[in-house]
Queue: 2 jobs
Job 1
Amino acid sequence: MRAAFRGARRVLPAGVRRETVRERLDRLVAEAPAAYDLDDWADVYGNDDSIIGELERRTAGVLGTVGAVFFPTGTMAQQVALRCWAGRTGNATVAGHPLSHMEVHEGDAWAVVSGLRMVHPTHAPRSPTAAEIYDLPEPFGALALELPLRDAGFVLPTWDELTAAVEAARDREAVVHFDGARLWECGPHFGRPLPEIAALADSVYVSFYKSLGGISGAALAGTEDFTEEARAWRHRYGGRLFQQWPVALAALAGLDRELPRLAEYVAHAKVVARALGEGLAEAGVPWFRVHPGVPHTHQFQVWLPHPPELLNEAVVHQAEQAGTALFGRWDEPGPAGPPGVAMTELTVGAAALDWTEGDIRSATGEFVNFVRRAGGGEPGGLGESWVGGRGQG
């Protein structure tokens, strides 16, 4: 599949066309002079007067916080944040979502490594409401909100719902932590700048490779006393690496290159989602789901009633034979979805901006034909057991 993506003339989703080490190094060298003074000294254990310190100050400035601390991984940053709050509140119970990144993708690090306990205000595929937070039957020290909630479809609450949830946590004498790996692109949905969003929380985690196209790395942002404690725990968790300048350099370049364009990506994601839905309907697919039908960020899900192996075969054939990569990899749904269907996540980035609605509808019909050739049935017979469920979420 990787070779098919690299050979395709047109690729809609961001992130599927992988780079070689040489290509990534060449891109970093090309972007580096505009991102940072390359005559400055390399970092040593994250010293403040280095590129790491510059990235931390730049991140705090973008988020409007007093300080920020660089971490090699988001998993480490999340555990440190919640570990700090457990110590400060005296309560190791965290209110979080069962579909959150911490629950699904971090190997239970919050419990195994940090000794925390998770309770769930809701199991619905959305952020918890204020009423659900008030109704939790036991005290909790921190409320962790993933913005957007990726495994539910990159969904966000409304601004009023978010502020009400935060107020409910405060009324329950809990602090608020934002799992904001993808917080960068939430501004258009909320209609608020990043500092106003970040100001709702006591701590905010952001990623430098999700949405910004960095190599890796993350940051925790918050008050001065919180970030100082986070630095101490970063060392204890093994995150004080000797040198991390390539990662920091790529992050600074991403802040320059991608952050100003994210609103444009979010706007075009709505165009892409609508055109995909129209294309699937025009192709006679009796059931599909584009979720959310109007994306909240520049990422959303597409669901079809076929095994992922069959859809991935169609992806490869379309890329190799038609030169078009409309979708990335399809997988069986996780705990958010039913069996018997496959789901793919679609990220709209710079390459997708050249795709018109007509381009997308045409490529969608072409993809459906490749699915049928791969064994997905004829018009009217595609996923018959799902007839009646067509929609865009």
Job 2
Amino acid sequence: MIKRVLPYEGLLHEVVEHDGVLYIGGIVPEDTSLDMSGQASDVLGQLARLLEGLGSNLANVLQVTIYMTDLKEKAAFNAAWKAHFAEAHLPARAAIGVADLGPGVKLEMTAIAARGR
């Protein structure tokens, strides 16, 4: 069975679940005035809260894809990343450079996570 939650503007669902796996759509920072480290913390915090609301947590994240407008800022992203994920629970990940994500948006992130047990 497929479960879809948190519809957004008739375009998508923020989370689609199938067989205990959560597929999380693009998360962008709420405060685009922040630098890369701040926007990364914002997005990772949103992911943590979203997972908690679904009975999971960051330790259950399997894979993350990060879209960045400037890969030169990857070190700043990595600092925030390390502050949110315990080394024992680091997921697989990819960072992809993109031309534009919207005014002030430095990154967008998608994730796949297991439902907590």
